[in-house]
C-alpha cells in the first residue's frame, strides 16, 4: 500500500494495526522479567531499491550446541480476557472485556531456568485468587518485581525430578492454566530443558 501497511503480530499487539509509510507504530508497553518497561516500534520505510519494508528492532541471541542451535532464551506470551479494566497492566478493549498479557514464560536454556511473570495488582492480589497468593508467598520461586507484576522462578537442578522443584513446577503450571496456559505446558517445557542438557 502506498500510504500505510497493515501488520498483524499477536506477540506484541492484541489486534491488527496500521503503520504509515515513512512513519512508525508503537505497541502497548510490556514489562520484562527484570522489571523494565519496553515497547516495540514498527517502521514502514523505503528499502535500498525503493521497495517498501516493514521493520522492527529485535535481538535474537543464540548459543551453539554440538550438532544444533538453540536460543539462549525464548519467551511464551499468553493473552486472556479480563472483565474489568486493569489498573496497572496494559490492555486492549474488546467489546465489554479487556485483552491483557496474562502471563509471560521465559525459558532460559543456558541457565535451565523457567520464569513466569504474572500480574500482581490486577490478578494475584485480588480476593478471588487468595488461595494462589498464600501458596506462592510460601514458595521459594515467589519473586516480587514491582507493583504491577511479579515473577515465579524455578531453577531446574539435578536430578530434574527433585521433589522441591517438582512441586514448584506443578504450582507454576496450575497458576499458568488459570491464566490461559495449556494444561501440562510447564511440565513439557521443563522436559525440553532437560533434553537440551543431555550430551
Question: TL;DR?
Answer:
By secondary structure, the protein is α+β, with helices and mostly antiparallel strands. The protein has four helices and 15 strands.
Give the SSE layout.
Layout: E1 4-7, E2 17-20, E3 23-26, E4 30-31, E5 37-38, E6 41-46, E7 52-56, E8 62-65, E9 68-71, E10 73-82, E11 91-94, E12 97-108, E13 113-119, H1 120-124, H2 130-137, E14 142-144, E15 149-155, H3 163-178, H4 185-197
Antiparallel strand pairs: 1-2, 3-6, 4-5, 6-7, 8-9, 10-12, 11-12, 12-13, 13-15, 14-15
Helix pairs in contact: 3-4
Mind describing the biggest β-sheet?
6 strands, antiparallel
Q: Give the termini separation.
A: 50 Å
Helix and strand succession?
Answer: EEEEEEEEEEEEEHHEEHH
Percent of residues in helices comes to 10-25%
Poorly predicted spans: 58-68
Number of helices: 4
Mean pLDDT equals: 81
Which structural class should the secondary elements be placed in?
alpha+beta
Query: How large is the share of residues in beta strands?
Result: 35-45%
Indicate the radius of gyration in whole angstroms.
Answer: 19 Å
Approximate shape = globular
Beta strand count:
15
